[in-house]
């Protein structure tokens, strides 16, 4: 069953990333503008952002199996529609429907928490987080051969190869979970949540095309603010809110969400800056004049490094805790960006900085997911990890737009100049440096499997034994304190 969750997440991350290398060809094939082609990515991002926390909540209420089946079926239908579409509106509709597949992330975390023993949860969560990097790496590797041999449209059929077997496996393997008695969905909260989120993200994605001070952007931001205030009021009053705002105030949750926002920025900032720099025509000793294939190859080591780091983050989590893993990831990513901010004249320097960025983000993504899973009760895993994934998506949108604005501001004679790229890389370093204090504020985790610890504060572990351990001390469960003659849980010997 864990393999099923990995397969579903992998298929969705592939469907999200696979369209990026094909955007120029998609523009020509569907006879649209660059802005219209970009909506093939934006539509799926917006849909996923709205669907992820809602699906996570449904998984908490009705069990991950039935919700995962529905999500995978809808995502498969949307992906097939997008791949077969002959017009841009049909493709955008298919991509928006396929974005519902973003809900597999919180569902996968819920499955992990139900299936894996506690000492192996961190490793599984780290592996799940690494699927994002692996999906990006595979999409870039497959893009060239598929486009050259079969055409760009076949690239859109690739995710179906993962979604179809994932759906069959979900029906066959995932055990049923009883729904919570009397549980209800906060549909008013879901509608208001979707409204303010779509308005805010549309303003962010269209800011460059429309102008940040344009009436359309300002109107969208104003609408987002009004709907956000209404949503907060509704969520604070209903008995079973879509997003429990009190849960979001826990130290392990809000620090992880803030770090996810910044890590999402760092991921997409590099996704904009590195390929653009590689393909920039050589002028005055700056630029590489590379091809799209060379730009893709530059992304490959970073994606592989991100995947490997996510897979190993679970072992590090058991040894040193999620807080230390997040700290290491932030420092490594910031160092990678700082290096290329001052040294970007040769390809090996971009490879070195990009690899450090990829490995650091792999650690950071796995750590924030583990922090959230550890900070919330089991019946809140889906919605909490869904919100965390949403925040990461918002950060990614900010990274894309901000980096593009920084580079565009440096254009001279129709070509970006070196100061723009240096400033963009420096901004990425500063953003990840801001994760360092968040990592230090995050709660401590159990350093080794088989030990229960007390860290103090209201976010401390809730097991009976952990509640009776001394602050800052850890001990093995089931161990009797013979000298005091009482059971370790506090009961009679």
UniProtKB/TrEMBL annotation:
Residue spans of biased composition, Basic residues class: 470-487
Domain Major facilitator superfamily (MFS) profile stretches: 1-445
PROSITE patterns cross-referenced by the UniProt entry: MFS
Entry keyword Transport: yes
UniProt subcellular location: Cell membrane
Chain spans, region Disordered: 460-493
Main subcellular localisation: membrane
Organism domain of life: Bacteria
InterPro entries, per the entry: MFS (IPR011701), MFS_dom (IPR020846), MFS_trans_sf (IPR036259)
Segments crossing the lipid bilayer: 38-55, 67-86, 92-112, 124-147, 153-173, 185-204, 210-232, 253-278, 324-342, 354-378, 421-442
Pfam families: MFS_1 (PF07690)
Keywords associated with the record: Membrane, Transmembrane, Transmembrane helix, Transport
Keyword presence, tRNA-binding: no
Topological category with respect to the lipid bilayer: Multi-pass membrane protein
UniProt-listed PANTHER family: MAJOR FACILITATOR SUPERFAMILY MULTIDRUG TRANSPORTER MFSC
Protein name in the entry: MFS transporter
